[in-house]
Amino acid sequence: MVLVAAVRDYINRMLQDISGMKVLILDSQTVSILSVVYSQSELLQKEVFLVELVDSISKSKESMSHLKAVYFLRPTSENIQHLRQQLANSRFGEYHLFFSNMLKDTQIHILADSDENEVVQQVQEFYADFVAVDPYHFTLNIPSNHIYMLPAVVDPSGLQQFSDRVVDGLGAVFLAMKRRPVIRYQRTSDVAKRIAQETAKLMYQQESGLFDFRRTEVSPLLLIIDRRDDPVTPLLNQWTYQAMVHELIGIQDNKVDLRSIGKFPKDQEEVVLSSEQDAFFKANMYENFGDIGMNIKRMVDDFQQVAKSNQNIQTIEDMSKFIDSYPEYRKMQGNVSKHVTLVTEMSKIVEERKLMLVSETEQELACSGGQVAAFELVQFLLKQAGVDKRTGDLYGNRDLLNIARNMARGLKGVENVYIQHQPLLLQTMESIIKGRMKDVDYPFVGNHFQQGRPQDVVIFIVGGTTYEESRTVALQNASNSGVRFILGGSVVLNSKRFLKDLEEAQRIARSSTNVV
Fold first, then answer.
1. β-strand pairing of 221-226 with 456-462
2. What pLDDT score does 375 carry?
3. In the chain, which residues have pLDDT < 70?
């Protein structure tokens, strides 16, 4: 089961068995988890008339006993404290408590002790502790993402929190898939090794009973790698639709905030880009910018045809037909204006920043091994992600076979000079499919080895994924190789976010050396 479907299934089960009017209470992270898979209109259909945040609802005293409260929260100590107070002063008729991950025994006791009014109807764990931005791509939206770049001694508690959140997220992904994986990690990354070992401890020791699913012939594979193995991909300009929107404007939880680039009508300030809710986007999210322009023109033409036929209303029957199709017509109108706006704004940015010229040079540097100017930031990047920190053959020039392959690729000519770069992830996936991933570079944790080729592989990138990489995964899955890949990361990067993380890590590293 792919990720979006798994999370939707959990939300459906939460809401459909509780009849009557409901208030849905979330925290800042479950808001993201829910919003990428469920629309507001779908919530209304499930009789959810109010959505509140758990920390703000604490401030209200008004009784609403006609409403049933459905809580969907991460099992953090802060949330348990909020619940404790809210159950002691219960305002709703019933309380249904759902948590996105495993509760500790102590937390269950706290909840039981707090329910003096006996309003809690159920407490359940629904393992949706990740943001499923696409069917094969998830993120954890970790705020202090730069932590992974720092040595453990600089901020031990910060790194522990980071690792704990990743382990929680990975545990939930596999519980949602009802599988227990064998685990491998990138040998050159301390943080990948740490997360791999802690995840194995969770799945094979602490909660082995919970992960003891019916065994398949070949266990799935969880591979944990480090963003610093490929620091090039997040720095490049993008020319396919989803990746380009994120690079030039920014996407957060499948929403695009247009206020950052100009003034727009109120209803267009924030638009949703979801492959689940938007057929045009689903069909075009991986297409290149040139093709998008043509496809949008086709969509506008189709809309104009529909609009023209709607102007020709002459009978009561025509009017009735128009009213029946009006919601669909409004949706189509909104979709057309959304995509036209996005492509128009991106075209302006491309023109202003001379991105075609910049991108051609970038691609040449990334794909032909050109020299990068040695600015201080780049020096720090080299320190963070230099050849000794990387496992993969990032520039494809480490062995004779790759050099020959690159020359052949150069001779054949490139279909599109702006998207010739392939992320290192593609090589990683190919080596898994062919069974050529070296144990010495990607060791197994414990004595759980892979017998044969896995059918399901989750690749988690500590430090964040990019939409270019999620496109590579989606295209690989569409090729029917017999292996299904899922990509996850601590955040979804664009060049701005990656450089911000680098600068923050550099600032902290510099101040910690000054202290010493």
1. parallel
2. 43
3. 1, 58, 310-313, 315, 318-326, 368-376, 378-382, 384-416, 514-516
- Outline where 97-222 has alpha helix (H): 105-114, 156-177, 190-201
Q: Return the pLDDT at 321.
A: 66
> Residue 355: its pLDDT value, please?
87
Per-position DSSP letters for 409-462, written without gaps between them = HHHH--S-GGG----HHHHHHHHHHTT---TTTSPBSTT----S--SEEEEEEE
Q: Read out DSSP for 378-422? A: HHHHHHHHSTTT--S-TTS-SSHHHHHHHHHHHHH--S-GGG---
Give pLDDT, residue 413. Answer: 38
Q: Name residue 456's beta-bridge partners.
A: 484
pLDDT of residue 23: 94
Whole-number Å distance between alpha carbons of 294 and 450: 46
d(CA 508, CA 516): 12
**Angle at the Cα of 292 (from 491 to 484), degrees rounded to 5?**
45
Looking at residue 53, what DSSP letter applies? E
Residues 489, 484: Cα–Cα separation, whole Å: 17
